[in-house]
């Protein structure tokens, strides 16, 4: 959404600049965030803000874990998260993921391997589009119930752009956090995420922030409040979500009609299994299409490519589906010999 009108209104009534004694979380933002999370079944009695989802996850891992500890992550999963875990000196344990989220067997195996944290993407999982279903959430909550040795982190980065119900795991373990970013629905330059969790976990994150960055700019917080309160912005985000759904679902359906089983239940990405990532990426590049090799996102999962629909026109879906189908075979296998 355009930020200009909201920034202009903010400039007119922002009042005197805040100082070092200013609260880290503005009361208006805290109240709105609490209501929005509660509507999705997330308890938000304790809440803070961070500089985006990945910043929140980094602070959580740094506050609870030590170098060498193991973290369970989805496989395939978010490439930036895999890089972050490595940069913190932590170890990754891959958990297979299907359209309904991390598999119960995979999480059980990770727990048996001694992981100290589990990161779950609630919806619009990157890169597969998985979303935790009601049945999967129930099974995982039962499995995780009372695990005092585990930090549970949920990442709801897509927020309003994910057009499926949220089925949170929040509270299944004594130490937990739910992170919701505003960057996907409202723009990547809005480096703000709301972080709810148990009292000790939220206090650790907020305390660590005070001796580092200090706080997330209250100017930015006021801007987010303005966007949240604006019906026109909400309608624009709804239309954007509908557009992403049409293009993602259209590509998945077009590939299915060509005999290719791709994944993309929610979000802006489609995960397409391929025999050889390099061949597929190269063939598509030569045909004028850019996709991401799956090796950036996977640990032990099978080869695939990630296709983002964010810049895809609906009229181009058939041509892209044809190119992907041919690209899976490779440049030298598309004709009979």
Automatic annotation (TrEMBL):
Pfam families: Aminotran_1_2
Ranges for domain Aminotransferase class I/classII large: 39-324
Protein name: GntR family transcriptional regulator
Organism encoding this protein: Micromonospora chalcea
């Amino acid at each position: 959404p355009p930020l200009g009108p909201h920034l202009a209104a903010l400039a007119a009534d922002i009042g005197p600049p805040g100082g070092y004694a200013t609260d880290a979380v503005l009361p208006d933002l805290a109240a709105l965030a609490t209501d929005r999370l509660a509507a999705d079944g997330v308890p938000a009695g304790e809440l803070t803000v961070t500089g985006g989802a990945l910043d929140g996850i980094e602070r959580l891992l740094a506050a609870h874990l030590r170098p060498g500890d193991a973290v369970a992550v989805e496989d395939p999963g978010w490439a930036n998260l895999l890089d972050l875990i490595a940069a913190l000196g932590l170890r990754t344990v891959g958990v297979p993921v299907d359209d309904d989220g991390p598999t119960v067997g995979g999480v059980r195996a990770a727990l048996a391997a001694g992981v100290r944290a589990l990161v779950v993407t609630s919806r619009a999982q990157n890169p597969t589009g998985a979303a935790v279903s009601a049945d999967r959430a129930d099974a995982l909550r039962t499995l995780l119930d009372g695990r005092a040795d585990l930090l549970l982190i949920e990442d709801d980065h897509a927020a309003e752009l994910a057009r499926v119900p949220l089925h949170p795991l929040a509270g299944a373990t004594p130490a937990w956090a739910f992170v919701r970013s505003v960057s996907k629905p409202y723009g990547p330059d809005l480096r703000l995420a709301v972080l709810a969790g148990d009292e000790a976990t939220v206090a650790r994150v907020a305390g660590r922030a005070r001796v580092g960055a200090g706080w997330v700019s209250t100017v930015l917080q006021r801007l987010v409040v303005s966007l949240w309160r604006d019906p026109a912005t909400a309608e624009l985000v709804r239309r954007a979500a509908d557009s992403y759904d049409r293009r993602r679902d259209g590509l998945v359906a077009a590939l299915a009609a060509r005999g290719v089983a791709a994944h993309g239940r929610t979000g802006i990405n489609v995960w397409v299994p391929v025999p050889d990532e390099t061949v597929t990426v190269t063939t598509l590049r030569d045909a004028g299409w850019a996709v991401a090799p799956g090796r950036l996102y996977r640990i032990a999962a099978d080869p695939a490519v990630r296709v983002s629909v964010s810049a895809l026109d609906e009229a181009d879906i058939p041509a892209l589906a044809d190119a992907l189908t041919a690209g899976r075979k490779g440049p030298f296998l598309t004709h009979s010999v």
